[in-house]
Amino acid sequence: MAVGRSYMARWVTVCAVFAALLVPACERANRSEPMKIALMLDYSGAPDVSADRQRGFELAIEHINEGGGVLGHPVEGVTRDATRTPGPAIEAAQGLIEEGVHAIVGPNSSAASLAVVENVTGPAAIPTISPSATSPRLTQAADSDFFFRTTLSDTAQGPVLARVTRDRGFDNVGLIYFDDPYGRGLAGSFAEAWDGGLEAVAVVDGQASYLPELQRSASAGAQALVVVTFGSQALAIVREALDEGVFTQFLFGDAAKRPRLIEEIGGAALGGMHGTAGAPSPDSTAAPAWEDSFRAEFGELPVMTYVRETYDATVALALAAQAAGSLDGAAIRDHLRGIGSSPGQVVLGTAAGVAEGLRLLADGREVDYEGVASSLDWDEHGDLRRGHIEVWRFTPDGRIETVETVLFE
After folding, report:
1. Could you tell me the CA-to-CA distances from 187 to 209, 391, 407 in Å, in that order?
2. 100 — alpha (psi -120 to 50), left (phi > 0) or beta?
3. E runs forming strands in 132-208
4. Model pTM?
5. Which of 51, 230, 256, 311 fits 234 for a cystine, CB–CB 3.0-4.6 Å?
6. Which residues of 318-355 are buried (b: 16+ CB within 10 A; e: fewer)?
7. Using an 8 Å Cβ cutoff, are 217 and 201 in contact?
8. Tens place of pLDDT per residue across the chain (409 aa)
9. How far is residue 28 CA from its own chain's centroid?
C-alpha cells in the first residue's frame, strides 16, 4: 500500500507540474495571435447604411491599432454580409467562427441578431455586440450572456414615438410594421404607450403592392400613418399611400430615417414629418474630437444612424480583451461590463482615449469607457441602462434635422 501511495503521489505531482506548464503555454498561444473582430452588416440590402457604419468600425480599428493594439498585436477587422434575415446571417456567422474570429460587431437587424446569438455565437462563446438591433425580444435571447447592445431597446423608442404622434395633434392613427422581431417589437412598444385609436397591420418582404394594408390601416378613420419598416419598403409604402390618396401625414421609426426617402418623395410632401431613433448622447465629451477624426479620415460626418454605436461596440471588445489578458470568448465577455462602468479611470471614445485605456489595462488598472455614443453601462441582459432617443424630422428643403433628444434611464 505504501508503494501504491508513493506511486500515486509521484503521478499526481507529475500531472500537476504538467498542468501548470500547459496552462501558461495555452495562454501564451492565445496571446500570440492578433485579435480578429468581425463586422456583420446588411451590405446587400442597405449598402448606404452599411457603408457609414463600416466607417465607424474602421475608425475604431485604426484608433485601437494606433494605441498599440490588443495584447501587443494589431487588431484585424473583417466584414461579412449578414443581410437582415436569419438564414444568411447564421451561415455568415458560422463562416466567421470557422475563420477564427474572436468577437463580432453586429448583426445590424434584430431578426439576424436573434438568430445568430441563439444558434451560433452564444453556443460558440463568441462575444457579440450589435450597434443597431433594437427588438425587446433580444433582452431575453438564449445567448448564454454573449450578446450586448450599444443602442437602446425599443422599449425606450416606442413611448417617445407615441408621444411625438400625440404632440403632432393625432389621436387616431394607422400603423404599418414589418413582420419580424424589429417591426413587431417597436409596433408593440408604440401600441402599449398609445392611448388613441389604432389599426396596426403587418407587411412582409416581396409585396408588389401595399394598398390592401394601407386601406385596412386607414379603415377606422386614421389621421396619419406610423411607418415601422426598413428604408426601401418605407419608401414604397409612403409613395403608394400618397399616389392612392390614402394618407398624407406620416410618422416614422428609426429604420426609415434615410435621406433617400426625402430625396425621392420630396420635401413638399414629407417636409415636417417626424420620426424617432436611437441617438448618441448630445452631451458626449468625446464627440468633438471623434468628429474631427471621422471627418479627417472620410471627408464628412456620417449621415446614417448607429455609426458612433458601431465605433463604441468595436472599441469595447478590444478593451475587454485587453482587460482579460486573453482572446478567449468567455474571458472577453466577462470583462465587458467592467470596462463600461465604474470603478475605473474614465477614458473617452477618441483616439487618445482608446490609447490611454489600452495602456491602463495593460498595466493592470481599471477603466470606465465613456463612448462617443453613450456610456456602456450594461445590465444583466447586455442592455444599456441609460441612453438617448432622438426626435427628428424631414425638412421642406430635403434635409433631416434633430428636433430634440430624450434621455432614457
Report:
1. 21, 17, 21
2. left
3. 147-149, 172-178, 197-203
4. 0.90
5. 256
6. bbbbbbbbbbbbebbbbbbbbbbbeebeebbbbbebbb
7. yes
8. 333 333 333 333 333 333 333 333 334 335 578 999 999 999 999 999 999 999 999 999 999 999 999 999 999 999 999 998 999 999 999 999 999 999 999 999 999 999 999 999 999 999 999 999 999 999 999 999 999 999 999 999 999 999 999 999 999 999 999 999 999 999 999 999 999 999 999 999 989 999 999 999 999 999 999 999 998 999 999 999 999 999 999 999 999 999 999 999 999 999 999 999 999 999 999 999 999 999 999 999 998 999 999 999 999 999 999 999 999 999 999 999 999 999 999 999 999 999 999 999 999 999 999 999 999 999 999 999 999 999 999 999 999 999 999 999 9
9. 32
Cell numbers at residue 338, please?
Answer: 467592467
Cell 433594437 locates to 134
